[in-house]
User: Fold this.
Amino acid sequence: MEKTVMINCSPKKKWSVSGFIMRCAGLMIRGRKEYLHLRTPDNRKGILQALTDADKAVFVVPLYVDSLPSHVLAFLKEMEAFCRENNLSLKIYVIANNGFIEGRQNEPLMQVMEHFCSRAGLEWCGGIGIGGGVMLNVERIMIPIMFGLMILNMVLRGSQGENILEPVGSFGRTIGVFLLLCCGIIAFGVRLAVHINRGTNAGKRYTRIMLPSFIFILFADIFFTILSVFQGGIFRGWFSRFKPDIGCSIIAAKDH
Amino acid sequence: MKTIIHDLGKEQNERLLAAADQVVCADGRYAPCQGCFKCWTKHPAACELKDALNQSCRILGTSEDLTIITENLYGGYSPEVKNLLDRSIGVSTPMSTYRGGQMHHTLRYGKRNSLRVIVYGDITEGEKNTLQLMAERNAVNWGFREHSVLFCADAEEAGGMA
Assistant:
């Protein structure tokens, strides 16, 4: 039975979109699976060990400044040497996601992963780049909340002798909208899973949350405003042009 | 302000200062970005992590001309340089806009002059193309009007090109 190692490359401890996508993708992949999290240098050894008897690896990566996060780059350097030393011949797939709406903004990241495969002697098998991935997190939080509200609504309606199925319809419509927003991600995710199961090259595909970009931008602005409120207030110098403190220790300057 | 960010080692700071107002050595000794967004929302333009990269976005933001000297790694920046860049997203604000026909964050420090990337080390043609694309994307992301990428054989030559 073939083994696939799924690697969540988000530095976040919990609530990472990459971790969620990894689990969803894992549901469609056959054979033995190992789910691992690359957060700190301490995780590297365990991941390399898991790769020794694996046939495929799926990197689920957030886009950081137009490329892979620095802790992932450091791991890839180590992995390249490890794969060369141990003569590993893995198939590599990538699921990249970014906070902007355009999935194509993941293109430089995908190219870096392709070059990594060439250097490490591994087989680049492509993947998908997802735009607006953060919306998946919103949906996974909203669905249980709305389910709970539906149950509460049904109980209240039942106690008053009203039609208890009406909230079910309303909940179903909400789920339908959520699925519609994600239809591109689901379709390309299923396509990628088929390629992973067959061990074939999936090529590079880009998709996004199915919202017009100006609406997504509005949602993103609201999201950060709410996040800021939870962190103690809003607009505390959000747009201020702060200068580095005098004597900022990493700067070497002529007048120091 | 002309700034050089490099991964050539601190001993090169003095030499590089001949070509810039300030020099920052990215030595990779710092924690990576945790993706918390607090440099946008909680304490703008300052990282949640209280180490030497705490205000790295302010250094980037106040640089009219930025030169990055990096070793090639798979057509991108070295982990040391990327560590500093990842920790500098406070150079923009949490609000979004369109720039270059795509969604980006609005610029905290406005448009600036030029981004120059000097890449050294073993490199393939494909990796060169990726670096060109990455510098172009970075320039749009950070609000630089111009960008250029130079390739050279080794660290010694890269330091001389600054």
The mean pLDDT of chain A is 94. Residues 58 and 93 of chain A are 5 Å apart (CA to CA). Chain A touches chain B through 58 residues (CB under 8 Å). The helical segments of chain A are 17-26, 44-51, 70-85, 107-120, 134-159, 166-181, 183-198, 213-230.
